Amino acid sequence: MNEQVVLEISQVSKRFGKLSANENISLTLQQGEIIALLGENGAGKTTLMNILFGHYRADQGSIRVFGQSLSNHSPEDALQAGIGMVHQHFTLAENLTVLDNIMLGTEPLWSPISHRRKARKLLHDIASDAGLEVALDSKVRELTVGQRQRVEILKALYRNVRILILDEPTAVLTPQEVDDLFTLLRRMVEGGLSIIIISHKLQEVLSISDRVVVLRHGRVVGEASTDNVDRDQLAEMIVGRQIERPTAIPRVAGKNLLSLQRVSVHGSRSSRPLLDDVSLNVPASQITGIAGVSGNGQSVLADVLSGMRRIDSGEWLIDGHAVSTPTPKQLTTLGFARIPEDRHTHGVVGEMNLWENLMLDEIGNPPRWRAGLTLNRDAARTTAEGLVKQFDIRCSSTEQPAALLSGGNMQKLILARNLARKPRLILANQPTRGLDEGAIAAVHALLIEARDRGAGILLITEDLDELLRLADNVVVMHAGTLSEPLPANNLSQRELGLRMAGSH
Amino acid sequence: MRLELRESTPWWLTVLAPLVSILVSLLMASVLILWAGESAFAAFQSMFKGAFGSTFAITETLSRAIPLCLTGLAAAVAFRARFYNIGAEGQLYCGALAATILGTGWITLTPVLMIPLLFLAGAAAGGLALLLPWFLKTRVNVDEVVTTLLLNFIILLLVGYALEGPLKDPMSMGWPQAASIIDEGVLPALIPRSRLHAGAFAALLAAFFVWVLLRYSVFGFSVRALGLNPEAARHAGIPPARTLLLVALISGGLAGMAGVSEVAGLKGYLTLDLSPGFGYTGIAVAMLANLHPIGVVVSAIFLAGISVGADSMGRALGIPSYIADIMVATAVLSVLIGLMFCRYRLRRN
Predict the structure, then answer these.
(1) Chain B positions in Cβ-Cβ contact with residue A340 (cut-off 8 Å)
(2) N or C: which end of chain B has fewer CB within 10 A?
(3) How far is A79 from chain B (nearest CA, A)?
(4) Quick check: B236 and A363 CB within 8 A?
(5) Using one digit for the tens of pLDDT, what is the confidence trace for A274-298?
(6) A462, A171 in Cβ contact below 8 A?
(7) Please, which residues 457-476 of chain A have a Cβ atom closer than 8 Å to chain B?
(8) How far apart are CA B206 and CA B194, in angstroms?
(9) C-alpha span between B228 and B243 (Å, rounded)
(10) End-to-end C-alpha distance for chain A, whole angstroms
């Protein structure tokens, strides 16, 4: 490995009002090195990257890229200097071809000719050097998520990026796609690229990076060569204390609380059904996991199960009896809790107070409603205070708007609302997405506790680690269909990955 | 620079924001007044005198505020639920039509029963006028802005037809106007020889009722949740279609009441120029009040004062009274900006 320093961040500090987002952060990146940047939400990773890209100005400190100083720079300057970023949410135009997406913005607006042939040849060279095969003429809409990510990487390489920053690159990939991505990254590093990966998934960080840098409360709290640390040490460095990950002890399955039988949901006329003849049982005292690469129908399934979407054919069974599609309110009355995938759009009303959000699904329920007609504010506030304490929701008061909660605390608020009434069944859709280690452990503990109490839980998640650790049974979702339930205890990540890719 | 949600709004800001906003709109209007060659101070003085300077001026302003208050409430209720009812003008005419059908001799009761009956009928007619947009929005996902707005013209044509045909007053010498409301149905004047009538009580009562409803009831909570985040409200079990149905009936009903109060209180009979756009100005009234029912009363009086005052200023100084429209528009815009700063603060990166 060449020991040339390509990026040097020294003593960077940034304050937002009272909050110190970055404090004296120093970091060096050498050529051909992969660094993993770790930290909880709010630890300062995003701020640091925003400073590097010129979205924010640092209050003090300096940045040198390839020996040249960058200060008061714009995002364009950063790109010019050779820094590129692949965001977690891709920034591609779906209706354009791969080639168009890559060339977009690289040519002057008023230039009369587009040098497509030249670009095509250059891209071929770059792609074959890096081992990055993408069909340049296919529309981005037709690509899988993994392929789209490759387009993003190719886009960065085309712009002559020599320092690549990847934000949560594996969040949307199957295990096989993750392997492919890592092979690609290693090959690109051998070609002289340097990489910073921002990630939550410790296992993956350990397998790909050369060095880890851990941020906490805006400071660098640890830096180590990856060979010298293990997973538990990393987790401890990230949160600053030991995390006890709860483990689930298997329980005997109870009666089926909820079943779907041969349910189909059609999309727009031309496409294939969104749910294709799906059958599913959710028994009491069990965590039933649903595995699948995102976009294979999990959201539609969750919409159906939370009463948000009608089914076109098939049958709902609740406690063994056939019923018509229940409304969300009926589900609440039945004791079926729903934790939505997207906290912000489906979980909370951001501009309402915490206590109002904590009673959002209480429509018509005493004691917070007097006679079902007027609101008992005092009772609602008292209940909210209790829930805030019980579920450890960090907030300034129950009067603050819910939108100001951090992701983890917002999730705890939704859990508090759902678990307070001791539900019989919980639909948990991506319950830990975007949360940090501490919050994840708390959410897991709550789910396991509910199951041990006898609740049936349906867990939809893209985090296979989580799935295999929590679930008693796993159902794999692919292209709108569901597999038979598989016992989780003798299922490997690899086998699950193959099934998720549809090869079983 | 970016906007950041405030944790809480300091009380002085909620008081200061509308005052500063109105000051800004006055400043902007004074530029135009100076341009027209008059002293801004004299113009505003004449305007204030015209609106609030004498008993007559005050009764004129208040009688104009009555329909504005009711249509403002109609907009406030609907907009809170994010049901953008732009059709208060049409619903107002529906209410007026119902009052005309019932109140021109078809039924005769004592005033104590007759007047509430007319209001009830007008409210029902206004509410019914919103059923079609409600149905189209909740069942087939048609935007209510389009349907309610276009229904205005359909309803106006319907009223035009009624006034030329079945409802035409044979004594009107050929003018397209309906027969007068019978004496039992006429809203009594509150001050002798003024145009201020008992509709004022209806407007105040309605504002109080809406305020209590929105603030203390389960329905009000549902409306607020639905307006701020319809998806989350639905997910939590608040039934959108049913809640919006009530919203539509209340909103249309309030606008219908405005029609009744104009027909039975101010004019005495229905014509096609019953409303100089009260339905549309009601939206400005509601916006200016930040959709708060009690605020609607204040902002209705304020906007009524501006338009009455501008008329009198136009007569006294020769400045076109269109300045009133400009002042209303700038006031609404600056209040909206002011309210944004109440909820968000500006942060430099």
Answers:
(1) 232, 235
(2) N
(3) 20
(4) yes
(5) 898 999 999 999 999 999 877 788 8
(6) yes
(7) none
(8) 23
(9) 14
(10) 41
Percent of chain B, pLDDT > 90?
63
Q: Are B218 and A347 in contact (CB < 8 Å)? A: no
A-chain residues within 8 Å CB-CB of B231? 345-346
User: Worst-scoring range by mean pLDDT, A7-21, A467-481, B64-78, B298-312?
Assistant: A7-21
A397-412 per-position pLDDT tens digit? 888 888 888 777 888 8
What is the identity of the amino acid at A346? H
- Please judge whether A373 and B231 are an interchain contact, meaning their C-beta atoms are less than 8 angstroms apart: no
What interhelical angle do B218-228 and B199-216 show, nearest 10? 80
Q: What is the pLDDT of residues B323-336, one digit of tens each?
A: 888 888 888 888 88
Question: What are the distances in angstroms from CA A157 to CA A47, A122, A123, A216, B72?
Answer: 24, 10, 9, 31, 58
> A331 and B235 in contact by Cβ < 8 A?
no
User: Is the Cβ of B216 closer than 8 Å to some Cβ of chain A?
Assistant: yes
Q: Which residue of A has its CA nearest to B226?
A: A349
Least confident of A85-94, B186-195, B209-218, B252-261: A85-94
Q: 3-state SS of B55-70? A: HHHHHHHHHHHHHHHH
For residues A72 and A59, the model is more confident at A59
CA distance A411 to chain B (A): 14
Asked if A352 is an interface residue toward chain B (Cβ–Cβ < 8 A), one would say yes
Mean pLDDT of A165-172: 82
Per DSSP, B166 falls in state T
Residue count (chain A):
504
Chain A closest CA to B343's CA: distance in Å?
9
Strand (E) positions, A101-175?
A: 163-167
Cα–Cα separations (whole angstroms), residue A117 to A97, A99, A111, A122, A442: 14, 10, 15, 9, 54
Angle at B56 between CA B53 and CA B60, to 5 degrees: 95
Question: Which of A189-203, A238-252, B215-229 comes out lowest in average pLDDT?
Answer: A238-252
The type of residue at A433 is R
Considering CB atoms only, which of B5, B216, B236 is closest to A374? B216
In whole angstroms, give the CA distance from residue A39 to residue A41: 7
Mean pLDDT of the B187-198 span: 90
Q: What is the rounded CA–CA span in Å between residue A42 and residue A437?
A: 12
Asked if A372 and B224 come within 8 Å (Cβ–Cβ), the reply is: no
Cβ contacts (< 8 Å) between A363 and chain B: which residues?
218, 221-222, 236-238
Q: Which residues contact A146 (CB under 8 A, 6 or more apart)?
A: A173, A174, A177, A180, A181
Q: How far is CA B166 from the centre of its chain?
A: 29
Write the DSSP assignment of B177-205 as a string of letters.
BBPPPPGGGSPPBSSTTSS-BTHHHHHHH
Beta-bridged to residue A256, according to DSSP, are A283
Q: Is A396 on the interface with B (CB under 8 A)?
A: yes
Length of chain B counted residue by residue: 349
What's the gap in Å between the CA of A361 and the closest CA on chain B?
Answer: 5
Among A334-343, A486-495, B209-218, whose mean pLDDT is lowest? Answer: A486-495
Query: How much is the average pLDDT of A377-402?
Result: 88
Query: Which tokens sit at A329?
Result: 């309110």
State residue A1's pLDDT score: 44
Burial environment of residue A402 by CB neighbours within 10 A (0 to 12, 13 to 18, 19 or more): buried
Separation CA A328–CA A330 (nearest Å): 5
Cβ pair B7:A401 closer than 8 A = yes
Cα separations in angstroms, A401 against A398, A411, A422, B147, B183: 8, 14, 25, 34, 54
**Which residue, among B9, B82, B221, would best test binding to A if mutated, counting the most A CBs under 10 Å from its CB?**
B221
